[in-house]
Design brief:
The protein is an alpha+beta fold. It folds into 5 domains: 68 residues, Phenylalanyl-tRNA Synthetase, Chain B, domain 1; 197 residues, Phenylalanyl-trna Synthetase, Chain B, domain 3 (Phenylalanyl-tRNA Synthetase, Chain B, domain 3); 65 residues, Phenylalanyl-tRNA Synthetase, Chain B, domain 1; 228 residues, BirA Bifunctional Protein, domain 2 (2-Layer Sandwich), CATH 3.30.930; 90 residues, Alpha-Beta Plaits (2-Layer Sandwich). Helices cover 31% and strands 25% of the residues. It is built from 21 helices and 31 strands. A 7-stranded mixed β-sheet has the order 18-22-23-27-26-25-24, with helices on both faces.
């Protein structure tokens, strides 16, 4: 909305320039978008929010300015002496739900002519073109007081009557009414559109635009001046349906001031009499639905608490009174009734907002809110630790070069069948969706792997042959209860493109992924991990393993959704050739590897593993490498378990590991060679070779006895 500075100063006196005024208005919620020089005046373009129709006028802005600067507000002159006598004119409101009040005055013997230059200039500065003195005065009062008015040529109103009703009420033959508007268009009217009618026909679209059949022209002598209040929703609906936007509809849609209606009518009549002459007759005022403002009680304590600082009581009363509220003060607070122009004020917090915006947001100190986090219960502590565990897993995999994916929790029957999962497997206990979008998304997933396989196919179809992805999400197992059992899982999928690698790496892909999983388990504090040959139907039988926690308690087993074996929390391996053959894309001499781990299993397995610290070693270590020949059927994992058991009783043993596996020339059929390293170190002295040889020979003898092997020579 555009206003001029000189026009504003007629209603409120303030000692500030345009820039200073713009700053104050913007800080209190009325953003000034531009300031322009217009000959001998300054035009301010103000962005008024939809909830503030009271500021869609010069007088409304003046009220804000007076409140900000603490100066008095004067209302424009509007008093006059009207002619006495009975009016030969009637107004009927048939739809009082849509028109709560309708008032009008008859003005006779006016002289329709061009408006004075000062009025034309003000209208032009505010974006409205001049037409004639009568029409210009209605537009002038609209800008001045914010209430739309309309002037009819009295001689063109049939039956000396105004009827306010919808099109459906006044249509005689149930056919749609049509009206020619002032913009030169003809519009067909629907039954719910509110009209201003005379005794025979519609003469205006209520609150939007007048009809050409009652237009004020140069030949007009007598006027009927209308001032009304229409239901905002009705005006908005009609305006939107017909695609008509006017200054009048813009204000009625947001809610006009029903009590300012009378003063606006008198102000326009006063200006018409002053500029166009004529005699003013009595007034018609039909008021079927009166406005009753709500009474809002508010304590000073709540005002200060919500704003965050104490505001003097006198300042509160001064602000609320200056804004036009009826205020009754008590010891502990105030009782407020908002003016009819402020229908957006419904609650006590609305009053608080009015107080703080006038008092000044910039005067409220900036304080960081206190948000203490206190975890008392064991359930809360467990939930917090579970979230930390998930975050640790995510950070480890991101650092390993993996990308996190997020998939829908839906799969189809084919996804389960493709993995060759048996009918007895509990991962077949799926939850069916009642109204799925498609058959492919008709089940809740019981493991994350099918979703990652879809990601694999999608990437391969776009030519991406280097894939490292993971997902942390819930899986759903149908149980005896109405709701399914929900468990958190972590799933990974890896596809390496070694042909494009700068350096040739002959490490098996399985051990690359196994190293990532071991790093993950180590970071979350899971110890005593074993990788046991897996029987998962969708994994390669010679390149897969189950992830088992030694000594894992029964609670882990109960929450595990991967297998019933004690301590199993996941699996790792290469996708079997049977599964790969079913994919719609082909792998080019590559292996797709996957792993899936129960987050709940990790949580319980790491519950008692607290980090421990030891001083850095001060003395050197001694390594001993040994190779033994054992039966080919002895798994390396079992061999390591025996090696750990043999060496755990010797305090000088710091570490032991397998570093080589060999079968071939020099090794008998059905045998294999396993080479391992044992590291010895003392915390208080430097060890001698003699000491170590004695200990190492004893440990090797025990190992050979347990494994049934022999030293490789």
């Amino acid at each position: 909305m555009k206003i001029t500075l000189n026009w504003l100063r007629e209603y409120v006196d303030f000692n500030d320039d345009a820039e200073g005024l713009a700053g104050h208005l913007t800080m209190c919620g009325l953003e000034v978008e531009s300031i322009e020089q217009a000959q001998d005046d300054i035009v301010l373009d103000i962005n008024v929010t939809p909830n503030r129709p009271d500021c869609l006028s010069i007088y409304g802005i003046a009220r804000e300015v007076g409140t900000i600067y603490g100066t008095a507000l004067s209302f424009p002159e509007h008093d006059f002496m009207a002619e006495t006598g009975e009016l030969d004119f009637n107004v009927d409101i048939l739809d009082s739900e849509l028109c709560h009040r309708y008032a009008g005055r008859i003005i006779r013997n006016v002289r329709v002519a061009p408006s004075p230059e000062w009025m034309q200039k003000r209208l032009l500065n505010c974006g409205i073109r001049a037409i004639n003195n009568v029409v210009d005065i209605t537009n002038y009062v609209l800008l001045e007081l914010g209430h739309p008015l309309h002037a009819f040529d009295l001689s063109k109103l049939y039956g000396k009557k105004i009827i306010v009703a919808t099109s459906g009420r006044v249509s005689n033959n149930n056919s749609p009414l049509r009206i020619n508007l002032l913009d030169g268009t003809e519009r067909e009217l629907s039954a719910d559109m509110l009209l201003i009618n005379d005794a025979e026909r519609p003469v205006a679209l209520a609150g939007i635009m007048g009809g050409s059949n009652s237009e004020v022209t140069i030949d007009t002598k007598d006027l009927f001046l209308e001032s009304a209040w229409f239901e905002p929703a009705s005006i908005r609906r009609t305006s939107s349906s017909l695609g008509i936007k006017t200054e009048s509809s813009f204000r009625f849609e947001r809610g006009a001031d029903i009590k300012l209606l009378k003063k606006s009518l008198d102000r326009a009549a006063f200006l018409i009499h002053k500029i166009a002459g004529g005699s003013i007759c009595g007034k018609i005022d039909i008021y079927p639905k009166r406005h009753h403002p709500p009474q809002i009680n508010l304590s000073f304590e709540k005002i200060n608490r919500y704003i965050g600082m104490p505001i003097p009581k006198k300042e509160v009363l001064k602000i609320v009174s200056a804004l036009g509220f009826q205020v009754e003060a008590f010891t502990e607070g105030i009782s407020v009734r908002p003016p009819s122009s402020r229908r957006d004020i419904l609650r006590d917090v609305d009053i608080i907002e009015e107080i703080v915006r006038i008092y000044g947001y910039n005067r409220v100190p900036s304080v960081v809110p206190e948000a203490p986090i206190k975890i008392n219960s064991q359930d809360s502590q467990a939930k917090q630790r579970r979230l930390q565990l998930i975050d640790t897993c995510r950070q480890v995999l991101l650092c390993q070069g993996y990308n996190e994916v997020v998939n829908y929790s839906f799969i189809g029957p084919y996804d389960i069948d493709m993995l060759n999962i048996s009918k007895e497997d509990k991962r077949r206990d799926t939850v069916e969706i009642i109204n799925p979008l498609s058959q492919e998304d008709s089940l809740m997933r019981t493991l994350i792997l099918p979703s990652l396989i879809k990601n694999l196919v999608h990437n391969l179809s776009y030519g991406n042959r280097e894939i490292r992805i993971f997902e942390i999400a819930k899986v759903f197992i149908k149980g005896a209860a109405q709701l399914p059992d929900e468990h958190n899982h972590l799933a990974m999928l890896m596809l390496l493109d070694k042909e494009k690698s700068l350096y040739r790496d002959n490490t098996e892909d399985f051990f690359v992924l196994k190293g990532v999983v071991e790093s993950l388990l180590d970071h979350v504090g899971v110890k005593n991990v074993d990788f046991v040959r897996s029987t998962e139907p969708f994994l390669h039988p010679g390149k897969s393993a189950d992830i088992v926690i030694n000594g894992c308690n029964k609670q882990v087993n109960n929450i595990n959704t991967l297998d019933d074996a004690l301590g199993k929390i996941g699996f790792i391996g290469v996708l079997s050739p049977q599964v790969v053959s079913k994919l719609p894309v082909k792998l080019q001499r590559q292996e797709a590897l996957t792993a899936e781990i129960s987050i709940d299993g990790l949580f319980f397995a790491s519950a008692d593993n607290k980090p421990s610290f030891a001083p850095l070693p001060q003395f050197p270590y001694i390594d001993r490498d040994t190779a033994v020949v054992v039966d080919e059927g002895l798994e390396v994992g079992k061999f390591l378990e025996i090696l750990y058991w043999v060496t755990k009783t010797e305090p000088l043993v710091e570490d032991c590991r397998v570093f080589d596996l060999y079968k071939g020339k020099g090794i008998a059929e059905g045998k294999k060679s396993i080479a391992f390293n044992v590291r010895y170190r003392s915390s208080d002295k430097t060890l001698s070779d003699t000491e170590i040889e004695t200990i190492h020979e004893r440990l090797v003898r025990e190992l050979l006895l347990k494994t049934g092997g022999s030293l490789r020579t």
